[in-house]
Amino acid sequence: MITLYGHEMSGNSYKVRLLLELLQLDYDWAAVDLMQGEHKSPEYLALNPFGQVPLLIDGDMKLADAQAILVYLARQYGGEQWLPMDAVALAQVVRWLSITAGEVRQGPENARLYHLFGATSINIDRAQQKADQILTQLDKHLLGRTWLEFQRHTIADIAVFPYVALAPDGQVDLAPYSQVLTWIDRVKHLPGFISMAGL
Ligand SMILES: N[C@@H](CCC(=O)N[C@@H](CS)C(=O)NCC(=O)O)C(=O)O
After folding, report:
1. Using CB atoms within 10 A of its CB, is residue 179 exposed (0-12), middle (13-18) or buried (19+)?
2. Which domains does the chain have, with CATH numbers?
3. How far is the CA of 60 from the centre of ligand 1 (A)?
């Protein structure tokens, strides 16, 4: 049995839920109350010493980090469609997982943390600038493409989608990025798609 520990407003938790749903897998959802600090409780830290969601347990396997979990689920239950193993193709997908944890986090994800959750330690001007940069690049990349790579959806799309689509929560306007908007709509029409607040 699969159990996903997460928070309903966490885009990182959501991207794992999204893939679980798209793969039509059964799983239990274990809500972790981030607002009450449950993720820093001794019980939760025993599961994930990083004190973060998401965390996935599948039988004896315990794995933290949204991108790592997407890789696991894709290979364990999804196969070539979601994560190809050819050296070049694999690297192309992993590039987007890296961009998600880098540029997307520094940009739209941090802007959302600032505006929606009051994370005032974030430099909002820098987050806005980073958001504009990555959205501009993404828009250019998507021109003439249906999905991020290979003209089919992979975990690259699932990893990048949440914090890009949630950018308006961080007062980042998506209107100038027409290719990005079209791609967001395409992801929302995948069979089995589930939404979250803000999408
Ligand atoms: N690298 C991790 C980051 C996870 C992460 O930042 N989770 C947030 C919620 S979206 C969290 O648990 N924040 C609480 C904290 O870091 O104390 C991933 O991609 O899953």
Report:
1. middle
2. 2-78 (3.40.30.10), 87-188 (1.20.1050.10)
3. 22
